[in-house]
Design goal:
The structure is a single chain. This protein is of the alpha/beta class. Helix content is 40%, strand content 14%. Helix 4 links the parallel strand 5 and strand 6. Helix 5 crosses helix 6 and helix 8 crosses helix 13.
Length: 408
């Protein structure tokens, strides 16, 4: 006689817990972290279709007019830029994304996104995608499967990507651009302005640098342990894409507790501001962020961390340095050559771009080039554009700077 099969107590427990652990519907957005845990049953959660839209689709939805430009750099990378055009604009703005994102970083807030609000305020808005980002993974001679595609740091992005983008914007608008860069993009702005001061003066009206990671003497993020772990392996892993974040995307897309876990980890690493991060934006982070980071970028930042008060070019080792630079050691970026106006926005709880390092950077730049410093209370390195208060803090600071620039 066949025995009846019964669920074990463990099986019953799994069956009960599964709806609280794994998302089984199409809802992707909740108003707080506890709601995400109950996303399968919670009326405070909903499906936000914007998360699944492309950058042109989002712009088309909220503005109705988008232009796409494919720009080829001098070293062969094919970059995609998006433009929200404006006739007779108040100014021309280039939004340059952080290390792990592309143009989507400026459109994750729908109608209230910085890219859309700047257009509504009368600006001709350009959205960049640096090499390796989602819309800029092409090259004239190789694919992104070739490890050599990933042989670049922020140095190459600054010299080649920014130069190509500035030139196209200047040709299309016959105007100087206001550069707004966040995190690594602030590094790009300072790199370009120091190495190409004359072109910078020609193309850029002013740089608005949010969370500038340049000097790292007071860097206190737990990322330092990543630098310590990677440092001995530099000769083996310098070339290549750091991570595709596919596992993180899966975790964020299907595991209900993911937003709460990521909020805790990012606050631990970036600076403890556990209540700042906006839960509504997590679907965008999981869906679109984490592409375009190279091992060489992280090694370069690690070298700066180990040298602390020096903003150095990449150290290839003594023999290679002689070939590349003509010296045993890599030179420092000539910040003293900068001849463009700049504004800094920084957070008082940022463990990567610390207030002390921002002050040291300010002291190194030519007198009078930094026209303003805006400190934001209770912000870590990721809060500037992902905080629940981003519109009243970071956005407002940017609007104030833009109004000041109009008066110059």
């Amino acid at each position: 006689m066949e025995k009846k099969k019964y669920l074990t107590p463990f099986g019953v427990l799994v069956a009960i817990a599964l709806p609280f652990l794994i998302k089984v519907n199409n809802k992707n957005t909740c108003v707080n972290y506890f709601d995400y845990i109950l996303i399968n049953f919670n009326g405070n959660c909903h499906y936000n279709p914007d998360v699944d839209l492309t950058v042109p689709e989002i712009i088309q939805k909220y503005v109705g007019n988008v232009q796409t430009y494919n720009v080829t750099t001098k070293d062969g990378y094919i970059l995609t830029m998006f433009r929200i055009p404006r006739e007779k604009p108040r100014g021309v703005v280039l939004l340059q994304p952080p290390i792990s994102a592309g143009a989507i970083a400026w459109l994750s807030d729908g109608l209230n996104s910085l890219g859309v609000t700047l257009w509504n305020k009368g600006y001709d808005v350009w959205l960049s995608n640096h090499r390796g980002a989602s819309y800029s993974r092409n090259h004239i001679n190789m694919t992104d499967k070739n490890p050599l595609f990933w042989d670049y740091s922020f140095h190459e992005i600054a010299l080649y990507d920014l130069d190509a983008q500035f030139e196209v914007i200047n040709q299309e608008t016959n105007s100087q651009v206001i550069f707004i860069g966040y995190s690594m993009s602030s590094t790009l702005g300072l790199t370009y302005a120091s190495l190409q001061p004359e072109l910078s003066k020609k193309y850029v009206k002013s740089y608005i640098l949010v969370a500038p990671v340049v000097l790292m003497e007071n860097f206190s993020s737990l990322f330092k342990f990543l630098f310590y772990a990677m440092y001995p392996l530099e000769s083996f892993f310098r070339i290549g894409e750091f991570m595709t974040f596919e596992a993180v995307r899966w975790f964020g897309s299907f595991v209900n507790v993911a937003p709460a876990v990521v909020n805790f980890v990012t606050s631990l690493v970036m600076g403890w501001t556990i209540d700042e991060m906006d839960p509504v934006l997590y679907p965008y982070i999981f869906a679109h962020h984490g592409r375009g980071i190279t091992n060489k970028m992280l090694y370069h930042y690690g070298q700066i961390f180990f040298n602390q008060s020096h903003f150095l070019m990449y150290d290839y080792g003594t023999e290679s340095n002689r070939v590349v630079y003509g010296s045993n050691l890599p030179p420092s970026y000539p910040l003293q050559n900068i001849d463009s106006s700049m504004y800094f926005i920084y957070g008082d709880n940022d463990k990567l771009a610390t207030p002390a390092d921002v002050k040291n950077l300010y002291d190194l730049l030519p007198q009078g080039q930094v026209r303003g410093k805006y400190k934001i209370e209770n912000h870590n390195h990721i809060d500037y554009f992902f905080s629940k208060y981003r519109r009243n803090k970071t956005y407002k600071s940017i609007y104030n700077i833009l109004e000041n620039l109009e008066e110059l």
